[in-house]
Amino acid sequence: MMEKVRNVGKSRRTLPRWLRGLSARLLVLTAVFVMLSEVLIYVPSIARFRLTFLENRIADAHLASLALKATPDNVVSKSLMLELLSNAMVRGIVLKRREARTMMLMEEVPPTVDFTYDLRGADAMQLIADAFTTLAEGGRTLRVVGSFPDQSEGSLDVIVDEALLHKAMIDYSTNIVKLSLVISLLTAGLVFLSLRLLMVLPMRRITASMVAFRKAPENANAVISDSTRGDEIGTAQRELRHMQDGLRTALTQKGHLTALGVAVSKINHDLRNILATAQLVSDRLGDVEDPTVRQIAPRLMQSIDRAIDLCSQSLSFGRADEAAPKPTTFPLRTLVDDMASAAGLPDDGSIQLHNRVGDEIILDADREQIFRVLMNLARNSIQALDPGTKPGEISVTANWGAAGAIIEFSDSGPGLPARAREHLFEAFTGSARAGGTGLGLTIAKELTQAHGGNLTLVSSDDRGTVFRIDLPGGPV
Length: 476
Ligand SMILES: Nc1ncnc2c1ncn2[C@@H]1O[C@H](COP(=O)(O)OP(=O)(O)OP(=O)(O)O)[C@@H](O)[C@H]1O
Ligand SMILES: [Mg+2]
Description:
Blueprint: H1 2-13, H2 17-20, H3 22-70, H4 78-87, E1 92-97, E2 103-106, E3 115-118, H5 124-136, E4 141-146, E5 154-161, H6 162-215, H7 232-285, H8 291-319, E6 328-331, H9 332-342, E7 351-356, E8 362-365, H10 367-384, E9 392-400, E10 404-411, H11 418-422, H12 440-450, E11 454-461, E12 464-472
Parallel strand pairs: 3-4, 7-9
Antiparallel strand pairs: 1-2, 1-5, 4-5, 6-8, 9-10, 10-12, 11-12
Helix pairs in contact: 3-5, 3-6, 6-7, 7-8, 9-10, 10-12
The structure holds adenosine-5'-triphosphate and magnesium ion (MG).
């Protein structure tokens, strides 16, 4: 038993590949369906074949009877009679006309009749049932009652050997079976071929491309070619191509990001060391008596401290997300002042930064992170403003809304270029200025979102640009 099971499994595995596919199954199914419909056609046609056979016997018998009629006393020689019967393929003929007497042509020993069929007025179902009885029996002697071919009144009976009818019906059925086989194989073959061409081969191309793409997504050859087909397969192929293109682009971008991340980490690492040295040196500035140096030194040290912090945080950013905010309470106004002095506004006063934040705005947030948000916005504005053409203005306002603090950061610059607007807040793609990395706004948005708030663009046109920072919370 085990042996048998193993053999069955093996034979399935060794089936040729094309027989295991969808088109082979459809080939078999189509052949079966065509055979089924052939059976439905066969049933009435075998009944009609039997009826025609018997009607022909009656017609032949009628012809034979005409020879009898031609003789003066309606008698023919025995040998002629046998010949007439054999020509009509019957064993006896009985003609009953209403106005004439009964005429008979019969073998010397009249055969015993096993069953009588009356063809006059037989319905279709009866004829079908009779045809199958003949196929099953096949050896009886039948009396068949019919009417005269010339429509004259009376009846014409013939005695027929069922074996003759049976043989003719078997021959006819065999031919039908052969023909059905040819038709079903031909139809199934055509269905098979068209399915293979229209569906199976394109589907195979699609699956092959999927497998190749899964194995080596960076390989451009694994991307499926475009299709001009308007049907579902064409749509599937086109969608797959879009998907593969999108994935490849994302993958390449990710590769670039990884490389950039590594580079930034290295730079950051060394920059931190350089800044540490600068910090040591600037510490010594505190001892210098010069009043100018005394005024500048704390700001310089603060900037270096910030730079070191930023380097440390960026190093951790490469590994995970930005450090979680460490909230403290502070007045926003002084933070904006700090930011203004560190933003690098031109000394000639061609760009004015108006701090319009009220003293009542005390935030509970990570001061350093909010500083970076404002600093990024300020740098963008300064870079966008062109004080040579018209004096630039930057202003920061803040007030309390229902959900928390609303800080508006506006400038009188030329507005965002279309390219920047399309990918605003997207890392590396948002930049539209030479030397820009496109990280500033992305980082700023991330920092505000880490606070549960948001950074959005309110408006931007040739009169200027307005960004809005939302920070949750209320007056402290
Ligand atoms: N206030 C603004 N006015 C006009 N254009 C702006 C303004 N802010 C941003 N942009 C445009 O949006 C782009 C994206 O800004 P983002 O700060 O994200 O990147 P970046 O300034 O190019 O580079 P990074 O800040 O990383 O050095 C800028 O390149 C600039 O073209
Ligand atoms: Mg920027």
